[in-house]
Amino acid sequence: VVEAMRLVDTAMSSLDEVSVQAHRTPRPAYEAFAKVVHRLEVDSIKVRAHTQAMRTRGDAYFERWEKYLAGVDNEQVRQLAEQHRPELKRSFEQAQQASQQVRELFRPFLSDLQKLRAVLEADPSLARIDAAKSLILAAQDKGRQVHQGLDRLLAEMNSMTALLRPPGAAPRH
After folding, report:
1. Side-chain-side CA neighbours of residue 78 (13 Å)
2. Cβ neighbours for 162, distance < 8 A, ≥ 6 positions apart
3. How far apart (Å, rounded) are the C-alpha atoms in residues 84 and 30?
4. What are 57-82's pLDDT values in tens digits?
5. Neighbours of 67 (CB within 10 A)
6. What CA–CA distance (Å, rounded) separates 10 from 37?
């Protein structure tokens, strides 16, 4: 999730840079943007596969996770998992929902970035960038929505982690 957030942030920054550089020399900013979009395309395949696996497996995924916890050496963590099972299950389901929402938001975001890359590929000039301003704004808005969805997903994952952390234990970084 954190890596996906970083990728979205990088794409958003790169998109901003295309707009900023439109009045100067936009070609280098466009080329950097095109590379970021390509990287986002490639990495999104991995994220999509993980999300699909999580969605497809549903309860089986959670049951395997519980079996894994049963084998954990730390008795406190195992007890916390059992004690908080209902909250963990609910949080897991909410994480699945948030993941699905992110996926649904991500598709149009990536599509806008791909369209913008295609529009600017031959001529990333000020005039072309200005003409694509509505597409840029739409992509920025969709990118913010994706980031907010990733924030929700990360919050759910952090909630699950907190439920399993023994009292007084410091979070791992």
Report:
1. 9
2. none
3. 49
4. 666 766 777 777 777 788 877 777 77
5. 9
6. 9
Q: What's the pTM value of the predicted model, to 2 decimals?
A: 0.80
- The CB density around residue 127, as the number of other CB atoms within 10 Å, is 9
**From its phi and psi, is residue 165 left (phi > 0), alpha (psi between -120 and 50) or beta?**
beta
The string over 111-126, giving b where at least 16 C-beta atoms fall within 10 Å of a residue's C-beta and e elsewhere, is ebbbebbebbeeebee
Closest CA to 136 of 6, 12, 29, 5: 12
**Distances, alpha carbon 123 to alpha carbons 28, 31, 45, 49, 109, in Å:** 12, 11, 29, 35, 22
pLDDT of residue 170: 60
- The tens digit of pLDDT for each residue in 108-149 reads 999 999 999 999 999 999 999 999 999 999 999 999 999 999
Asked if residues 143 and 12 have their Cβ atoms less than 8 Å apart, the reply is: yes
Distance CA 68, CA 91 (A): 18
Residue appearing with tokens 């020399």: 25
Q: Which long-range contacts (CB under 8 A, 24 or more apart) does 65-73 make?
A: 65/92, 69/164
Each residue's pLDDT tens digit, 14-52: 999 999 998 888 999 999 999 999 999 999 888 778 777
